[in-house]
Design a protein that fits this description.
It is a single-pass type I membrane protein. The relative contact order is 0.23. The N and C termini lie far apart (about 65 Å). The chain has no helices and 11 strands. The strands form 3 sheets. The protein has a 5-stranded mixed β-sheet with strand order 5-6-2-1-9, with no helix packed on it. It has a 4-stranded antiparallel β-sheet with strand order 4-3-7-8, with no helix packed on it. A two-stranded antiparallel sheet has the order 10-11. A hairpin with a 3-residue loop joins β1 and β2 (about 20-25). The protein folds into 2 domains: about 10-100, Immunoglobulin-like (Sandwich), CATH 2.60.40; about 105-135, no CATH class. It has strands at about 10-15, 20-25, 35-40, 50, 55, 65-70, 80-85, 90, 100, 105-115, 120-125.
């Protein structure tokens, strides 16, 4: 147990382009300039824990995020831990997080329109994703503009 207000806040990880992940957080409201944070994670209970190798730093040199490449999360469960250190003081750790995936657009979009019937057929394939395997998980919205 560490001093109140030293744990990170607003921990969010965003997966984009299928295999890149950025995790960011805010420094604890009572953390001093010499506080340093460290991020550890694993994609499943079966994998080894890995520390961040590419930290994002603030103006004081404190770690406030991490960039990962070649990320795969096989299911909904990923495990994160951010803890910290400071001279002569314990820092609260946190394991609360949010993961968001920014999807790529649908693939192979094709439109077939026939003048005679005044109808169009639009087809596509689901976007690539880091962990969703069922195409039935996606909902789509089509906006048609008549120009």
């Amino acid at each position: 147990a560490g001093m109140n207000g030293t744990a990170i806040e607003n921990f969010v990880c965003v997966i984009f382009n299928v295999s890149f992940m950025n995790c960011t957080w805010h420094v604890g409201r009572n953390a001093t300039e010499d506080t340093q944070y460290f991020l550890y994670w694993r994609a499943s209970k079966k994998e080894d824990v890995t520390e961040c190798q590419n930290y994002i730093k603030d103006n004081c040199g404190r770690h406030t995020g991490c960039q990962f490449q070649n990320v795969t999360i096989e299911n909904k469960n990923a495990y994160f831990l951010v803890n910290g250190s400071r001279k002569l003081q314990l820092i609260n750790s946190t394991s609360d997080y949010v993961i968001v995936e920014k999807l790529t657009p649908p693939l192979n979009v094709s439109v077939n329109c026939t003048e005679a019937s005044h109808r169009c057929s639009i087809r596509w394939q689901p976007p690539r994703t880091s962990h969703v395997k069922k195409s039935s998980c996606f909902k789509y919205e089509i906006v048609i503009e008549n120009k």
